[in-house]
Amino acid sequence: MGDTTFVLATQKRNRSDDADGGGEAKKQTLHTSGDPAAALASARHEFGEHGGVNMSIEASATFTVMEPETMRRMFAGELGPDRDFFIYSRHFNPTVLNLSRLMAALEGTEAAYCTASGMSAIASVLLQLCSHGGHVVASRTLYGGTHALLSHFLPRTCDISTSFVEIGDLEMVDEAMVEGKTKVLYLESVSNPTLTVANIPELSRLAHRKGVTVVVDNTFAPMVLSPARLGADVVVHSISKFISGGADIIAGAVCGPASLVNSMMDLQQGALMLLGPTMNAKVAFELSERIPHLGLRMKEHSQRALAFATRLKKLGLKVIYPGLEDHPNHQLLKSMHNKDYGYGGLICIDMETEERANKLMNHLQNYGQFGFMAVSLGYYETLMSCSGSSTSSELNSEEKALAGISPGLVRMSIGYIGTLEQKWNQLEKAITRLQETGHKN
């Protein structure tokens, strides 16, 4: 298939159009600046088959045509989703395509397509951009699954090597990228779990100077940061987190240039097409219904995270939150973020040892009823985990130390259920009890 912009279709066809030429799809307006909520509101709204305000779910695995010649033309790449021609739902599906349009609008990219998980989105992008023997430069501080993919799986299966760097050391990043060899600079906008903020504009400038594609995982900061508007080429998401908001769906997304997304769906060479991390149409429908209130949820997550981080610091705890003025990346984040959405919904409390971290979480869940001990994030309840022994457990001790992950680092995804004061009272009660029992011991 060519670079026809299938993923941005804005017009539906009539069945009588089977004999017409394909042509390039009309591209939706790219919102390169401004509020991502405004971009979402400007995206195409898909109505239901019978005029419903919500779209219909296209649950078909395969699609029919009116004329035999049409199928040959679809497989030849002459007709595609830009004209509402579909072959098979492992390729393009209309319902998944609609969610993908919303993701492209959210991130201000030309195109997007959604996948069955965040890891499938990440792996597919890297495999599409890197060939056998390729080279990646990546942040030392990454989600454990991504780190394992780069440090173990890709070297073994594809001879794709990765140089891990301190993402805040621009000179180190620049030196690690080798022009003509390095294909991808991979980073997280806000790192998991240390909440380090990446200087996306400057990192993108350095990478582009050497012909390197910048891929940013924006899972921790949807609405808060817009990496593509700041210079990144590709944005990936674990939609399972904030975007879903319900801790009930596993999903991912690749947002970027139409040429990349279409190449990933190519019938002969596409990583998404051939590896098959297909999103179910019913899942895509549910997620399409949640994105419109993502902005409201992110504002509340961020507001509470800032309030709790500020108050916890006054109680004497070692709190890490980029919204606090003493965070080393506070001014950087302030210069890049979409200000209406705050500084994100995650905070960390460094208890220094795993034993003390576990005591804190035990008190917060079982005495304060403040939240749940669970991995993941973006839920309406607060979720907390000791990162070193959970979501970053794929890193060895040396790698954790280089990444700045303390053994007692408690990552907390702040929820918005109940009132702020009600939840603060639960949090304060648990910490007071912990401090009292600590003094007795």
TrEMBL record:
GO MF annotation, one: carbon-sulfur lyase activity
- Spell out the residue ranges making up region: Disordered: 1-36
GO biological process: any one? transsulfuration
Query: Which keywords are on file for this protein?
Result: Pyridoxal phosphate
This protein's name: Methionine gamma-lyase
Q: Which domain of life is it from?
A: Eukaryota
SUPFAM superfamilies cross-referenced by the UniProt entry = PLP-dependent transferases (SSF53383)
Gene Ontology cellular component annotations, sorted alphabetically: cytoplasm
- Give the UniProt family note: Belongs to the trans-sulfuration enzymes family.
Q: What is the lineage of its organism?
A: Eukaryota, Viridiplantae, Streptophyta, Embryophyta, Tracheophyta
Which Gene3D superfamilies does the UniProt record give? Aspartate Aminotransferase, domain 1, Type I PLP-dependent aspartate aminotransferase-like (Major domain)
Q: Which residue ranges have biased composition labelled Basic and acidic residues?
A: 14-27
Residues that the record marks as modified (N6-(pyridoxal phosphate)lysine) are: 241
Question: What cofactors does this protein use?
Answer: pyridoxal 5'-phosphate
